[in-house]
Write a structure and sequence with these properties.
CATH architecture: Alpha-Beta Barrel
Strand order of the largest sheet: 1-2-3-4-5-6-7-8
Radius of gyration: 16 Å
Number of domains: 1
CATH superfamily: Aldolase class I
Low-confidence stretches: none
Mean pLDDT: 95
Number of helices: 8
Strand content: 15-25%
Order of helices and strands: EHEHEHEHEHEHEEHH
Length: about 210
């Protein structure tokens, strides 16, 4: 699936900790209705079988909304169920190896924390970078917070799109303006909210202002 920079504006990463009796599928659909432009399935607690079932269902849902759908880390499952792509961290499979497995037409995202990591990921075939954490975050306690200068250095060093991740919400997203970002990736700012659709809509407006500031 080909994608544009605009598809990375509001990148929603799933987390079933906040299901509250709903299915993940239902929550993702609410985010899509609110305007999420990209979905990543990231479920650390699910076994392979249930992860695969969720992935197949949510891929079909995203296709209906014409929104890219990628799998976190698990290249084998992404390959097996024909996801639009995969997102890998620095400790996961290296971007060049992912590209070799998935082929030329899949989306590959890579987490980067330094200019060196960013340049290497781009050179090895990454389509976009996730950079962070940009604010303190509860979803990853072992991650250092990057300062704005480093974010700017990364966006200026590479030609591929860059999104920020980590502790982002509608109240602080505009602090990221001027760093050359194409969008943000969030978890709790969408999926922990009471009204997911409205929260997504409001956040998307704030991200749009940040990107275009």
């Amino acid at each position: 699936m080909k994608f544009d920079r605009e598809d990375l504006l509001l990148y929603a990463v799933t987390d079933s900790r906040w299901l509250n009796g709903e299915r993940l599928y239902e929550q993702v659909e609410k985010a899509l209705k609110g305007g999420a432009t990209f979905i990543q399935l990231r479920e650390k607690e699910l076994d392979q079988e249930h992860f695969f079932e969720e992935a197949v269902e949510i891929k079909e849902l995203c296709a209906r909304y014409h929104v890219p759908f990628v799998i976190n880390d698990n290249v084998e499952i992404a390959l097996k169920m024909d996801a639009d792509g995969v997102h890998v961290g620095q400790d996961d499979m290296e971007a060049g190896d992912v590209r070799a497995k998935l082929g030329p037409n899949k989306i590959i995202g890579v987490s980067a924390h330094t200019v060196e990591e960013a340049l290497l990921a781009e050179e090895r075939g990454a389509d976009y970078l996730g950079v962070g954490a940009v604010f303190p975050t509860g979803s990853k306690t072992d991650v250092d917070v990057l300062d704005g200068g480093m974010i700017r250095e990364i966006t200026e060093a590479v030609h591929i799109p860059v999104i920020a991740i980590g502790g982002i919400g509608k109240d602080n997203v505009e602090k990221l303006a001027g760093n050359g970002l194409d969008g943000v990736a969030v978890i709790s700012a969408i999926f922990a909210q009471k009204d997911i659709t409205e929260a997504t809509r409001e956040l998307k407006e704030a991200v749009f202002r940040m990107v275009n500031a």
